[in-house]
């Protein structure tokens, strides 16, 4: 089946929604958000969706350069700007903080925001190492504050659709959670393999971007690979171990990876025998970003394209097989093959809209972070991400 037309009315509306065009009236109570970092990613991850989420309002931005913060605030219609992160955290009128800083600064400023009594939405990866993740988890729990890791795609209806098909556990599951096929009878039956790829073309970041700086916890594994691992664990559950990993180093670097691939396996629980692989790259040769999920089970194959940015077009192709004896109209022997193709857009909003909507709902409920397990899940993700380093070959 051909991809959706780029200029159909529905797609135009989805793009407009992504850009924050046609914002919705604000309702009370409003969660007042301050942004740490006058960054490009904050534009589409926070500013644009906040225009469409009724209970969210961006009220301040901080940068290390006061002039940059002021210019950024003026450009985006943000009421207040600060020339230091500390000054923004001291603002009593701010309820929550969006941490959109480089990877290596996530843990430091998430802790600072929590200590200032602010709820936090922190860009992935949650922290730069496992120790930081534990500290943040404990701090959020002790203060009764919401602190979420910004894997924006997970709240989109597309992921709900995949979880429904696979019968996989909800986010935040413990390492002892049942496998998806035994939890709720997924359409693929017992799973055999899960393969995820997130490939960013080299023209997007070039070779001098901060994502390639060791001091800022850069590299493909931390930037794109965390999406792969998060998707695998979100859909399957359990706690796999790293079987192998291979890195392609960035130019003129012996420590920062431009690409990372690896294989995982489950050694215990109902997923025993399941294997997974991932590919992550910040230097992909293709012209467009790629984000795909392929799941194979005893009853067929599921392929999902563009799971990270589904608002710009996505495809879910499901091919299932069943023994003729299992079909009501079976005649003779053999297998019946069924293929379906769907596109999942929900209400047509972006992944960032759904993410922010979930975050402000939790904040408005003053939900204790310990109740939804998000920090524990994020900590395990960071620990697992760092376990890859022990299996790397270059």
UniProtKB/TrEMBL annotation:
Gene3D superfamilies per the record? Dihydrodipicolinate Reductase, domain 2, NAD(P)-binding Rossmann-like Domain
Q: Give the EC number(s) under which this enzyme is classified.
A: 1.1.1.179
Q: Which InterPro entries match?
A: Gfo/Idh/MocA-like_OxRdtase_N, Gfo/Idh/MocA_domain, GFO_IDH_MocA-like_dom, NAD(P)-bd_dom_sf
Query: What GO molecular function annotations does the UniProt record carry, in alphabetical order?
Result: D-xylose 1-dehydrogenase (NADP+) activity; nucleotide binding
The Gfo/Idh/MocA-like oxidoreductase N-terminal domain extends over 31-149
Recorded catalytic activity of this chain's protein: D-xylose + NADP(+) = D-xylono-1,5-lactone + NADPH + H(+)
Tell me which UniProt keywords the record has, alphabetically. Oxidoreductase
Q: Where's the GFO/IDH/MocA-like oxidoreductase domain? A: 186-302
Family note = Belongs to the Gfo/Idh/MocA family.
Q: Please report the name of this protein according to its UniProt entry.
A: D-xylose 1-dehydrogenase (NADP(+), D-xylono-1,5-lactone-forming)
């Amino acid at each position: 089946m051909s991809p959706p037309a780029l200029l159909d009315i529905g797609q135009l509306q989805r793009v407009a929604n992504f850009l924050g065009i046609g914002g919705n009236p604000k309702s009370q109570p409003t969660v007042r958000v301050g942004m740490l970092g006058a960054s490009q990613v904050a534009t589409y991850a926070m500013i644009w969706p906040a225009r469409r989420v009724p209970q969210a309002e961006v009220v301040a931005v901080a940068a290390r350069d006061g002039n940059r913060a002021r210019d950024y605030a003026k450009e985006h219609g943000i009421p207040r700007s600060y020339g230091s992160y500390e000054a923004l955290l001291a603002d009593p009128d701010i309820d929550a903080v969006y941490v959109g800083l480089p990877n290596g600064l996530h843990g430091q400023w998430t802790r600072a925001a929590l200590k200032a009594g602010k709820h936090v939405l922190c860009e992935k990866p949650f922290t730069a190492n496992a120790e930081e993740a534990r500290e943040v988890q404990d701090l959020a729990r002790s203060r009764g504050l919401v602190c979420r890791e910004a894997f924006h795609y997970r709240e989109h209806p597309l992921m709900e659709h995949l979880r429904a098909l696979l019968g996989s556990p909800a986010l935040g599951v413990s390492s002892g959670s049942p496998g998806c096929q035994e939890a709720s009878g997924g359409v693929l039956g017992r799973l055999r393999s899960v393969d995820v790829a997130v490939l960013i073309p080299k023209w997007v970041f070039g070779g001098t971007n901060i994502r390639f700086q060791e001091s800022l916890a850069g590299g493909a594994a931390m930037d794109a690979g965390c999406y792969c691992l998060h998707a695998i664990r979100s859909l399957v559950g359990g706690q796999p171990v790293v079987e192998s990993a291979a890195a392609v180093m960035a130019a003129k670097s012996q420590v920062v990876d431009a690409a990372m691939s690896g294989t995982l396996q489950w050694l215990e629980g109902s997923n025993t025998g399941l294997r997974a692989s991932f590919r992550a790259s910040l230097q992909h040769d293709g012209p467009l970003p790629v984000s795909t999920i392929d799941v194979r089970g005893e009853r067929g194959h599921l392929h999902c394209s563009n799971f990270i940015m589904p608002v710009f077009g996505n495809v879910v192709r499901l091919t299932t097989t069943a023994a003729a004896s299992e079909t009501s109209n079976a005649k003779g022997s053999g297998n019946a093959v069924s293929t379906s193709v769907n596109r999942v857009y929900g209400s047509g909003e972006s992944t960032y809209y759904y993410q922010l909507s979930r975050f402000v709902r939790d904040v408005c409920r003053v939900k204790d972070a310990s109740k939804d397990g998000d920090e524990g899940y994020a900590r395990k993700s960071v620990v697992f991400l760092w376990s890859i380093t022990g299996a790397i070959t270059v």
